[in-house]
Design goal:
The chain is an alpha/beta fold and about 450 residues long. The protein folds into three domains: about 10-110 and about 245-325, FAD/NAD(P)-binding domain (3-Layer(bba) Sandwich); about 115-240, 3-Layer(bba) Sandwich (FAD/NAD(P)-binding domain), CATH 3.50.50.60; about 355-420, no CATH class. Helices cover about 20% and strands about 30% of the residues. It has eight helices and 29 strands. It has a six-stranded mixed β-sheet with strand order 3-2-1-7-21-20, covered by helices on one side. Strands 24-25-28-27-26-29 form a six-stranded antiparallel β-sheet. Strand 13 and strand 14 form a beta hairpin. The radius of gyration is 22 Å and the shape is globular.
């Protein structure tokens, strides 16, 4: 099959892919532009899926992202990229077609980690929640009022889904291998607040609990979960909220530093080859990209947040159009938000690795507070539960490497005391299923 005309190809037609393509056009690129998407849909917004779509407040097909620039692009949707030939500068799609490229932006994002088929993953009534079709199918199942919903995984998606389902009056049990919800990302000191929210909302929360397998009825529909301790939980609808793996399988054999943890880039968003050298014609952005963040000791980090997808895509596009001597490093302070149990949670920085945490505004008991995380005497992150007024000041302090905690004697500040964040040990963070993989929940 003859390759189509070369130009810039964006692989991934979601938020990062769309905003990256728009930035290329705004930056003056007027050549051939192609967007490749695994799903048949034009780019859509994912945050509403676990909230408004599940609640029935918004149809799944009403989440389409606004297209802010006239792209004059070719759209290749519904046929994912399956391989990359860097020597020939071509990529092959699942439908067998071949696309040539002069430059490539990888923005394939991440995929929901499925439950293994050998332990019940093929049963009807077992859902993941990542894409538009996932949300539509799950919403349809919820309309039938399942008698007991089981959510496996207490990360953001699991907690948001639990909050939404309790608002719908559905019976919910959330099981998590960690001692508190959000413990992997925020620690048990803060996550314990969400545990109390779960219980006050009428959900059953089972911490330190691992699901071994799912069992089905005669019709092949999920009927129960068998736990690692031998007990069971009856359920006829399961949401497996086990985190995500980066969509990098199509890059296998391409000679790049890429695995299930992401595509490794340099500070300028250029993808590194297997020898660690930056590829001048291949960039990455969004959930799939991991790059060194100086603020955290140049540790390679993949940031699965909405704001990063937008900002990094624009930065990668800028560098794609710049000369080799004008490759600017991408500076970003990770930030994300979540709405659950009537609380607006905002996080700046990366709490993981903190050795201390302090509540510097409000109180955990009121569920309105701001907490700061420290490591080795430096402030590295902050989280707000409906107490975001001081968050911009802490963002500045974290970026500046200020001492922990950086702001003392502020208005209405309680007596600041430090505590252990309570991040789970590797044993506590074991997967909620029999596998050697790491589960990011």
């Amino acid at each position: 099959m003859t390759p189509e005309p070369a130009g810039i190809v964006v692989v991934g037609a979601s938020l990062a892919g769309l905003r990256g393509a728009e930035a290329l056009r705004r930056g003056g690129y007027d050549g051939p532009l192609t967007l490749v998407g695994a799903e048949p849909h034009r780019p859509y917004d994912r945050p509403p899926l676990s909230k408004h779509v599940l609640a029935g407040e918004l149809a799944a097909d009403a989440t389409r992202l606004p297209e802010l620039t006239d792209l004059h692009a070719r759209w290749r949707l519904g046929s994912p990229a399956v391989s990359l030939d860097r020597a020939a500068r071509t990529l092959r799609l699942a439908d067998g077609s071949v696309l040539a490229y002069e430059a490539l932006l990888i923005a394939t994002g991440a995929e929901a980690r499925p439950w293994p088929a050998e332990t019940g993953g093929g049963l009807a009534g077992l859902f993941t929640l990542r894409g538009r079709d996932d949300a539509a199918a799950l919403r349809e199942a919820l309309v039938s009022r399942p008698r007991q919903v089981l959510i496996v995984g207490g990360g953001l998606i699991g907690c948001e889904a639990a909050s939404c389902l309790r608002d719908l009056g559905l019976p919910v049990t959330l099981v998590d291998p960690n001692p508190a919800p959000l413990a992997r990302g925020l620690g048990s000191f803060v996550g314990g607040v969400i545990a109390s929210c779960l219980r006050d909302a009428g959900a059953a929360f089972r911490p330190n609990t691992m699901v071994h397998a799912f069992e089905g009825d005669a019709a092949g529909h999920v009927a129960r979960a068998r736990l690692a301790d031998g007990s069971t939980i009856e359920t006829n609808l399961v949401i497996a909220a086990l985190g995500a793996t980066r969509a990098t399988g199509w890059l296998r054999g391409a000679g790049l530093k890429a695995d299930a943890g992401g595509v490794t880039c340099d500070a300028a968003c250029r993808v590194l080859d297997a020898d660690g050298a930056p590829c001048p014609d291949i960039y990455a952005a969004g959930d799939v990209a991991r790059w060194p963040i100086p603020l955290y000791g140049d540790r390679l980090i993949a940031v699965e947040h909405w704001g990063n997808a937008v900002e990094q895509a624009a930065h990668a596009a800028r560098n794609m159009l710049a000369g080799p001597g004008d490759q600017r490093p991408y500076a970003h302070l990770p930030a994300f938000w979540s709405s659950q149990f009537g609380i607006n949670i905002k996080v700046i920085g990366l709490p993981e690795g903190a050795d201390s945490v302090a509540v510097v505004q409000g109180s955990r008991s009121s569920r309105r507070f701001l907490a700061v995380y420290g490591r080795a005497g430096r402030s590295i992150a902050a989280v707000s539960f409906d107490q975001a007024r001081w968050l911009p000041a802490y963002a500045e302090a974290i970026t500046a490497g200020a001492a922990f905690p950086p702001i003392i004697d502020a208005t209405d500040q309680p007596r600041v005391q430090t505590a252990a964040p309570g991040f789970p040990s590797p044993r506590q963070a074991a997967p909620a299923r029999p596998s050697t993989e790491t589960v990011d929940v």
